[in-house]
Amino acid sequence: MPHPSESRRSARAQQPQRKRLLKRKRFWIPVAFLVLLIAAGAWLAIRGLQAKAQLEASVPLVSQLKDQLLAQDVTAAEKTLDEITPRVADARSLTSDIVWRAAEYTPFVGSNLTAVRELAAITDNIVTDAIPPLMQVAGTLFDGGLTPVDGGLNLDVIAGVLPDVDAATEVLDEAEAAVGDIDTAHTISQLTDAKATMAQLLATLTPALHEAQKILPIVLPALGSEGPRKYVVLFQNNAEARSLGGIPGAIVPLTVDAGKISLGAPADGEDFAKFAESIVPVPDGVRDLYALAFGTSILNSTVRPDFASAAAVVQAMWRDSFGEEIDGVISLDPVAMSYLLRGSGAIPLPSGDSLTSDNAVSLLLNDVYLRYPGLTEESRNEQGEFFAQVVNAVFGALLGGGTNPQSLAEGLIQAGDERRLLLWSANENEAALIADGDLNGSLPISDDKVERVGLYTQDAIGSKMTYYLKQKVTLSQASCAADELETYRISTDVTNILTPDEVEGLTFYIVGDGSEGVTAGDIRIDALAYAPPGSTISAIRVDGQPVEFTSFHDENYPVARVRVSIAPEQTKNITFDIVAGQPGHRELNALVTPLVYPTPVEVATLDCTTVAAR
Q1: By Cβ atoms counted within 10 A, which residue in 148, 342, 364, 495 is the most buried?
Q2: CA 444, CA 449: separation in Å to the nearest integer?
Q3: Is 8 inside any structural domain?
Q4: CA 315 to chain centre
């Protein structure tokens, strides 16, 4: 055991060594580095949490801003933008200092820090450089820029928003590319989700702006910025159905000059000559299919389910009757008109009626024929005068600035989606734009993924009875044979909603004059199926019973037609079976005639045991 004095001497000998160690640089360097790492980590953690909080708070505000702009609430949108701007600027500042950038080179953590910095910078760029010009566009257009004044639109105001649209689009395009370049392969899931959310937001914004860039320069000349344009507006009458909707009940010339819109005197069928042969070239097969109806009468201009054909007939007949060239044709029906009236108040008519969104369809397609039966020339003139009054009153209301622009836009969109608004232009650029917007009323066009068929309805009496027609369509398909060619079944249930008690109160103008041999109150229609080019229509059944049919064609579309009569309160089922022209599965879709009542289209499973063997 060592002597106590020796232990004390050993302890005293070690004290200078400790003091010397504390004075050495190699001791303090790692300590300092460790302290710096701890400090930097704390710095990054604090700033990262602050940036995270600012970005997370901005997400619902950005969504709120988008909703406010869509609702045309520019004042509220400006307040939201004021709240977002400092938040995203703060997030960018917090993630861009030298400590943050240096830490991006560390393993594991670095990729997350880089993604946060890039997302913060992109968000700041959008809020700072893209949203303000969009707000300027919204403020200009929504604050009266699209409101007609003295029957016209201010084209200078519309043209003035183009630079702001271009500026916002450029920023959003750059942001979309930058988001795509963010590497989230090794980041935490929250950052992967944040990138996806940003990409989705940009995917909803940039296409709309690109459309605006494309549309506005074309729309301005269409509104007369380079000289007057003359259009003809067809008001299709769904109470007497034709493939595109109905017969042209009123035909109104419309002139647009530097945004100023003026109406001419309405015309009707009596103002146009009838022709023994078509006034325009007849597509292959159409003469046999429509039995000389195509191109011989303005009232049958909508018989073929292709609006370009209808417009060609209208253009030629307008030239023949009035000696004028027209630049375009616009088609609406009373259902579409009811959509446009949602944003306006009741419109008083000289007849004493009050036209609203709720009563427009019944008043224009049924009540008028009960009030003016059409038995005499005077009564028929009263019908024409009533329709002229409606046209003038509606256009007066729409062009008078009293209609809510958002409601009007929503009505136009719904009418276009239901093929109740159709457009044709003689200008190739405008025609291409119309086709891109699917407003050209073309025949069904299939592609690699979707097979499109057409199911069209024609009144076959010469009446206004299709006002009482309701229709439901069911689509089904299956591969039922060894050749793997699918069978497509288009099944339609057509219902006469009249009751027997209601028939007696109808006028001859509604039920028909009896010359067709149809019992009063019955609806007689021709149902036409347009099959995809290359396919074959193999069978038609009415109420489950096979019927013989003649195979027609319209250019390269196989077509079949069947005629049925539907008594009051009766429903009949018509099915068309079509064999695909090539093997493989494609989604089945159908275009239908826009009748008075919307046609629901449902999808069902096809039972192959009900398909005829081939």
Answers
A1: 364
A2: 14
A3: no
A4: 27
